[in-house]
Amino acid sequence: MPAKSQAQQKAAGAALSAKRGEARKSQLKGASKSMYESMSEEQLEEFAETARKGLPEKVKPKT
Asked: How many structural domains are present in the chain?
């Protein structure tokens, strides 16, 4: 499943970096910390590899 916003793609990239040991888990905040704890490395790769071009910066919550 590809990322739906640039913010989601960036958070997945940060979480993936921590999963691989390239960044510290303690540096993660918010969505990236949640993604780190709840998603596998394969799922994070799928979100992180989404091209940012054409994605909105953030997704508006449904009301």
From this structure: 1
**What are the helix (H) ranges across the chain?**
6-19, 30-38, 41-48
pLDDT at 41 over 90: yes
Burial of 16 (0-12, 13-18, 19+ CB in 10 A): buried
* Domain residue limits at 61: 1-63
CA-based nearest residue to 8, from 47, 39, 45, 34? 47
pLDDT for residue 59: 80
- Percent helix, strand and coil across the chain, each to the nearest 5: 55, 0, 45
User: What distance in Å separates the CA atoms of residue 62 and residue 22, rounded to the nearest whole number?
Assistant: 34
pTM: 0.83
